[in-house]
Design a protein that fits this description.
324 residues; alpha/beta; eight-stranded parallel beta barrel; 15 helices; 8 strands; binds phosphoenolpyruvate; binds magnesium ion
């Protein structure tokens, strides 16, 4: 284990003035679990279920999925594990389920695929609920939701899986359900979506790409992929305010949450939980522990007035330097 991690692991993630901010992790493989626990993760904000699907040459059966999901849920119990339903398409293609499109990021991906294939969706949901039996630390997260109708369709399938399992005498509970906010349409529907779910989680990787019309994987336009673009910051703030107006918890699970400077802004915006790659967790925790919430809020007020992403970064670094 990296030196110093052990001591930091035991310390709470809170500001100097005792504002708590839970730090969760994004996982996909069992190896992520070990690294996450070593770093004191307080939960899983995003378990990418497509990862085990990508490592196979066919769809895993419901029972195979149950075993994989149980391992994740058991490893973190009693902490929450947020399992996202299959998010294939875009840049993530299963070799045994090819999707060929001219414009895959605007095509058949995430919830669009699984609503068209309810048998895939239902098997996943059933496997997740069975895996959580007796632990009850599961949350279900829906990717690429762009409107209320998709959400309602997905919820109907989740309820159907739940009632089927009860009829089959499984000891299951209906887990909290949440949506990813990663499509601009969802930002403008955040209130309506929040009114129908238990939590929101912002996918800033896709949200940045779609807001700025910049492919997240295209090196030629990488300079234009600006997480501190005023449009991105405004969207991030609006989502948390709209989510809270409906009384639901709002988190973020894109890479941005693992950037210490961004983490301060997200905390000041009011995000309830930040979920990140385990590697970044100690850095983020150290920075949060070195600052006051008031300082973070004043930084946020300043940067929301800036037009240039580079100026935002500079202002954040100045604050971090002041905080030592
Ligand atoms: C995101 O889009 O920010 C996200 C967390 O999902 P993924 O990176 O898997 O698309
Ligand atoms: Mg995404």
């Amino acid at each position: 284990m990296v030196k110093g991690l052990e001591a930091l692991k035991e310390l709470p993630c809170e500001t100097l003035d005792k504002h708590r901010l839970p730090l969760w992790v994004n996982t996909g493989l069992m190896t992520d679990v070990v690294r996450s626990l070593e770093r004191g993760a307080e939960g899983v904000g995003l378990y990418r279920t497509e990862v085990p699907f990508l490592l196979r040459d066919r769809f895993p059966s419901e029972e195979e999925q149950r075993i994989i999901y149980r391992e994740q849920l058991e490893a973190f119990a009693p902490h929450t594990v947020t399992m996202r339903t299959l998010d294939i398409g875009g840049d993530k293609a299963l070799p045994y389920f090819p999707i060929t499109e001219d414009n895959p990021f605007l095509g058949w991906r995430g919830i669009r695929v699984t609503l068209d294939h309810p048998e895939i969706f239902l098997a996943q949901i059933r496997a997740m609920m069975k895996a959580s039996s007796g632990l009850d630390n599961l949350r279900i997260l829906l990717p690429m939701i762009s409107g209320v109708q998709e959400l309602e369709e997905a919820k109907t399938l989740i309820y159907r899986a739940y009632h089927e399992l009860l009829e089959e005498n499984h000891d299951v509970k209906l887990p909290p359900i949440g949506v990813m906010i990663e499509v601009p349409a969802a930002v403008y529907q955040a209130r309506e979506l929040a009114a129908r779910v238990d939590f929101l989680s912002v996918g800033s990787n896709d949200l940045t790409q779609y807001l700025l019309a910049v492919d997240r994987n295209n090196a030629r336009v990488a300079d234009l992929y600006q997480a501190f673009h005023p449009a991105v910051l405004r969207a991030l703030l609006q989502v948390v305010q709209d989510g809270h107006s409906q009384g639901v918890s709002v988190g973020i699970c894109g890479e941005l949450a693992g950037d210490p400077g961004a983490a301060i802004l997200l905390m000041a915006m009011g995000y309830d939980v930040l979920s990140m790659n385990a590697t970044n967790l100690p850095k983020v925790k150290s920075v949060i522990r070195a600052i006051n919430l008031e300082q973070a809020e004043s930084l946020l007020a300043d940067v929301m007035l800036l037009a240039a992403p580079a100026d935002v970064r500079e202002r954040i670094e100045a604050t971090l330097r002041d905080a030592g």
